[in-house]
């Protein structure tokens, strides 16, 4: 469904007070329920958006390299599911037992480097090289903290998609809304002030435990006992909500007519796809809450890592190189 670009982000702003309130008072419930119901549908919806928006720009060797690296990362997650110990110590620079995390981050650095041939020797190429080098260094030195930071920062990627998609006044309005939803509000929640005002206490869910059992979704184990850990978890749960709203409620409202629609995969029509997402949400919720939350989350991680890591190269290509040449503009108001 298309909409006027100036109005595209209203679902994001409308969701801010509700999501903020729930994330502060019931952070575990907010994280768990939105993940169980929206995690898999949003991942599939984002893959569809990326393919429809950027598929025509990823032809040839770039698309093949992306697919190969993403398949490798998915295999790493499947190996973890199967309990395979990769036993990689990354040339002695990482602690033993972190082989999967190290290899995954090295693959992410390689995914960022895939954009280099298209970006050339200008600022775009320099940015891609810096990102690839930083991820490689982080993989060898700080794999687990880096993955934790990326788990939070991934929720901010809709800002890049909106910046790439929109122009002019619509873009300025969207980015202003993003400053509120992805910047000011989560920082305020992380400060601990809202929880203090509301005298909020950690919550628990009978089927999955208490919030302390799930801090690892966004924070490395070394900081779980810090006084600010719960407030950062609250902010991350809020960001997760904003990410889902943006992917499921904002991006589909924007017309793709200003970019070549030559997706690499045969996606069904919008109405059929929406029905599939609803069905997937029901199946996902049943798996998370009627079966096993932990096992369902580990299985979802395979799909999640593919949709999350593909964002690095496509945003580098879209924001730095492809968008200016394609002449993307805001969709007409009709």
If you had to describe this structure to a student in words, what would you say it looks like?
Mean pLDDT is 84; it is low at 89-96 and 321-334. A two-stranded antiparallel sheet has the order 1-2. The protein is globular. The chain is mainly α. It has helices spanning 10-25, 27-54, 61-81, 99-113, 116-119, 123-141, 143-153, 157-165, 168-190, 193-198, 229-250, 270-291, 293-309, 311-326, and strands at 204-205, 209-210. Strand 1 (204-205) and strand 2 form a beta hairpin. It has one domain. The longest helix is centred in the N-terminal third of the chain and has 28 residues, at 27-54. It has 14 helices and two strands. Helices cover 69% and strands 1% of the residues.
Strand order of the largest sheet: 1-2
Runs in which pLDDT lies below 50 for 5 or more consecutive residues are 89-96, 321-334
Mean pLDDT: 84
* Number of helical elements: 14
Would you report the number of β strands? 2
The ordered string of helix (H) and strand (E) elements is HHHHHHHHHHEEHHHH
Helix content: 55-70%
Distance between the termini: 12 Å
Radius of gyration: 20 Å
Which shape, going by the Cα principal axes? globular
Structural class: mainly alpha
Helices and strands in order, then pairings?
Blueprint: H1 10-25, H2 27-54, H3 61-81, H4 99-113, H5 116-119, H6 123-141, H7 143-153, H8 157-165, H9 168-190, H10 193-198, E1 204-205, E2 209-210, H11 229-250, H12 270-291, H13 293-309, H14 311-326
Antiparallel strand pairs: 1-2
Helix pairs in contact: 1-2, 1-9, 1-11, 2-11, 2-12, 2-13, 3-4, 3-13, 4-6, 6-14, 8-9, 8-14, 9-11, 12-13
């Amino acid at each position: 469904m298309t909409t006027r670009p100036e109005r595209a982000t209203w679902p994001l702003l409308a969701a801010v007070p509700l999501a903020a309130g729930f994330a502060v008072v019931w952070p575990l419930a907010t994280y768990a329920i939105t993940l169980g119901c929206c995690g898999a549908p949003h991942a599939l919806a984002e893959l569809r958006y990326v393919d429809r928006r950027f598929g025509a720009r990823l032809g040839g060797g770039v698309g093949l390299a992306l697919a190969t690296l993403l398949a490798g990362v998915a295999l790493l997650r499947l190996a973890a599911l199967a309990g395979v110990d990769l036993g990689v110590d990354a040339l002695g620079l990482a602690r033993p037992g972190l082989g999967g995390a190290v290899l995954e981050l090295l693959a992410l650095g390689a995914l960022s480097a895939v954009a280099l041939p298209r970006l050339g020797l200008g600022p775009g190429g320099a940015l891609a090289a810096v990102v690839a080098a930083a991820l490689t260094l982080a993989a060898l030195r700080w794999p687990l903290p880096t993955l934790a930071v990326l788990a939070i920062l991934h929720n901010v990627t809709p800002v890049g998609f909106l910046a790439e998609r929109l122009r002019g006044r619509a873009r300025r309005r969207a980015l202003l809304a993003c400053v509120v939803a992805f910047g000011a509000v989560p920082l305020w929640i992380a400060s601990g002030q809202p929880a203090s005002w509301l005298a909020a206490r950690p919550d628990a869910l009978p089927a999955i435990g208490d919030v302390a059992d799930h801090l690892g979704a966004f924070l490395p184990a070394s900081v779980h006992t810090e006084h600010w850990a719960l407030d950062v978890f609250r902010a991350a749960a809020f960001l997760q909500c904003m990410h889902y709203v943006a992917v499921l409620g904002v991006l589909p409202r924007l017309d793709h007519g200003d970019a070549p629609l030559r997706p690499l995969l045969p996606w069904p029509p919008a109405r059929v796809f929406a029905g599939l997402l609803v069905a997937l949400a029901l199946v996902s919720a049943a798996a998370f809450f009627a079966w096993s939350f932990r096992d369902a989350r580990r299985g979802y991680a395979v799909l999640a890592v593919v949709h999350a890591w593909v964002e690095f190269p496509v945003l580098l290509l879209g924001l730095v190189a492809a968008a200016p040449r394609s002449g993307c503009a805001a969709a007409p108001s009709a």
